[in-house]
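Input chain follows. Return structure tokens only.
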Amino acid sequence: MSAASKSLLSSPEGEKFLNLIRARDFPFWFFLSLLYAQLALALLPSWSDGTYYDYGLLVPFLAPFFFLARWRELKIPQSNLHDSLAKITSSPLTTFLLIFGLFGLAFLRLAQGADSGWRAPLYFHALLVLGITAVFLFRLLGKGAFRFWACAILILLAVPLPSQVEFSLIHNLTAGVVEFALFVNRMMGLPLMSSGETIFANGIPLHVSDGCSGIRSFQSGVFAGFVLGEYLRLSIPSRVLLFGSGLGLAFLMNGFRVIYLVQHAVAHPGADLQKVHDVSGYVSLTLTFALIGGAGWLLERMEKKFSSPA
């Protein structure tokens, strides 16, 4: 073992981690790990298909980090935790709910095996896992279980939206981006026409499919704003402002992206728009994340300023 590793384990945080691993209630943590590991396996096809939910690959790392951070804040004595777990596991009601939940999970896994793209079983699966966790936490901590609300929302954000909701969102984002791009470009003197999701600039068609990845920016922006709000421990009003900022910034960046693509198509009629389309998408997504990070930093500074004594 390296000197750095020994130093880390001898630190207060390292000692807490070792106490957690060596504790008699290790089976409880192992059970929770298995519970969420099989949920991650069920969601993995949606995360890895390269469409809108690839940010979900971060959730198996972020959720335990935020959960343990909240858990350490409660400062529960290890002996009290073990005694409480012993009482819960010997309760007939808890045993019944646990068996019922495990049978439900097995049925949902069979449904997902038949069709991994069916969204409804994924939501039932996530809600059932969160429900089992909530029962344990409420029996252990009482009202202290509410402190983990952000972890539950973080997991739900990684579940794909229902198909009808997703279709409606894509349609509205696409229509909004097209109208915004048409308005700005016409104000700049370009004679544009449109037909559905296609903009015609001097006869050159530009297809604004899926809101030019507006749904990806929308989903990623909501996720990034929520994660940043939890990491900075912002107040609820600040989190709502950060959420609204993420939505607005995602829409504006995609609108500006389409405006640029139209301008480029008019200025370079023979250019390969696909390459420009992809590069501009990465730039727009990076700017969205950077601006959301700046908004979170500003909100944190404002909270500290107003909460500090005069």
